[in-house]
Design goal:
The protein is an alpha/beta fold. Helices cover 46% and strands 13% of the residues. Helix 4 links the parallel strand 3 and strand 4.
Length: 242
């Protein structure tokens, strides 16, 4: 079993690298101008559409309500695996900026794309965290959606249980009065667990996109209620798949 996991993991990582090598010239081209960046975003989606079938991983996306591709949203998902980032590219068709930790930009090829297309946050620096927050608000003002893992990282010791949410995503949604969309990822931790082994397992991937939660008229005093509603929505769905 362990031997199969290792061989399968080599297969998955090989395709991860090969596909990025094949698409990287186009990423590089489309990232040279701001107006071309939506095309680079489409390449992210294309990469996922190719990668998961090549790895033999079935991805099912369930929408509990329609999502307007032209509307800006703050998408919030639970976070248990590094696979979550790749899966979100298949889940969300809106043009979005992913907010992730700055260390991701150190990954060869992927890091270049991430640095140019998305938003990095350095949580060790209050100043840089504030700058990230202002940049994210600017993207929302331009009509671009945001994707946030509100736990702030992979901290759970008992996946898929969640750790408490941080305020940032909910504060931004309220400040810009844009809908917030909870997303539940129940099985990613089974495919690529955050246990240090970096070994893949074959298991279907499921993403449940919940109905948008409107924030029109909400004020910052409503932040805790919005955060609680989002947490409860994702948690209830996780319990359905245990």
């Amino acid at each position: 079993m362990l031997l199969f996991k290792r061989l399968y993991s080599v297969w998955c990582y090989t395709w991860f690298i090969l596909l990025f090598l094949l698409l990287f010239p186009f990423f590089w081209l489309f990232l040279q101008r701001e107006a071309w960046k939506p095309r680079a975003h489409y390449l992210n989606r294309l990469w996922g559409q190719l990668y998961f079938p090549l790895c033999g991983i079935k991805v099912e996306v369930v929408h509990r309500a329609p999502i307007d591709r032209c509307q800006a949203y703050v998408f919030c998902a639970n976070h248990t695996s590094y696979l979550d980032i790749a899966v979100m590219g298949l889940v969300i068709s809106n043009y979005y900026a992913f907010i992730g930790k700055s260390s991701l930009q150190k990954i060869p090829l992927f890091g270049y794309m991430f640095r140019k297309l998305h938003i990095q946050v350095d949580r060790a620096s209050r100043l840089k965290s504030h700058q990230t927050y202002q940049l994210a608000l600017k993207e929302l003002r331009k009509g671009r959606s945001l994707v946030v893992f509100p736990e702030g990282g992979i901290y759970t010791k008992n996946p898929p249980e969640m750790t408490p949410f941080k305020d940032g995503a909910f504060r931004m949604a309220i400040e810009r009065q844009v809908p917030l969309v909870p997303i539940t990822l129940p099985y990613n931790w089974k495919v690529l667990p955050d246990d240090g082994s970096l070994l893949f397992s074959r298991h279907p991937v499921l993403a449940v996109v919940h109905p948008p939660i409107p924030t029109t008229g909400l004020q910052l005093k409503d932040l805790e209620a919005l955060k609680k509603e989002t947490y409860q929505t994702i948690e209830n769905e996780l319990k359905r798949h245990q």
